[in-house]
Amino acid sequence: MTDPLSTTLSALADPTRRAILARLAAGEATVNELAAPFDISLPAISRHLKVLEGAGLISRGREAQWRPCRLEAEPLKAVDTWLERYRTFWEGSFDKLEAYLNEITKGDGNGRQS
Amino acid sequence: MTDPLSTTLSALADPTRRAILARLAAGEATVNELAAPFDISLPAISRHLKVLEGAGLISRGREAQWRPCRLEAEPLKAVDTWLERYRTFWEGSFDKLEAYLNEITKGDGNGRQS
């Protein structure tokens, strides 16, 4: 059995599926609306939606004909939480850069008293 | 050709590979050190490391015998940047909850003047 975070990351590992989520971040949309910007078949879009729905990244309305898709952000929040411990790596680099810039700016101030 | 973000997310969609990254977040390690906590073969670990290396999530030393692995956080930063636009969804929910809690706390203060 696949763990939920792996299922989420696997569902996100596709540019079309990420584009679908980006569209849904702007509001609900039908399958036809979601398919419009892509040069792929409606069945292919449906397969992508099934993967996203399986990962809990989208939910779909109950209406038989017009089943709007909506973004469910909870699994993305889990990715964000997982990333937390690694954030120090690039934030740390920025701190070092800032310290360095402060250092050379200070040096500059002392040197040139114009 | 797979885009870099999809390659990263696909490499992360495995609990063993995420555990390897978590170990490397604490510092460099050899393949043997990385394999120790897992009940899987050394070749299986090597395959996981190849996937992580292919995604640029780890790099390996040049020494023939002792090739330490190290975490490369740059691809994770790209995931963090991609998540940015979705962060408003759960941060927004917290804001709404906070507003609601402020509201009922205020109501409480006006109601019971004990």
Automatic annotation (TrEMBL), chains A, B:
Pfam families according to UniProt: HTH_20
SMART domains given in the database record: HTH_ARSR
Domain HTH arsR-type residues, every copy: 1-91
Organism: Ferirhizobium litorale
InterPro entries, A to Z: ArsR-like_HTH (IPR011991), HTH_ArsR_DNA-bd_dom (IPR001845), WH-like_DNA-bd_sf (IPR036388), WH_DNA-bd_sf (IPR036390)
GO MF, any single term: DNA-binding transcription factor activity
Upper classification of the organism: Bacteria, Pseudomonadati, Pseudomonadota, Alphaproteobacteria, Hyphomicrobiales
Name of the protein in its database record: Metalloregulator ArsR/SmtB family transcription factor
Membrane-spanning segments: none
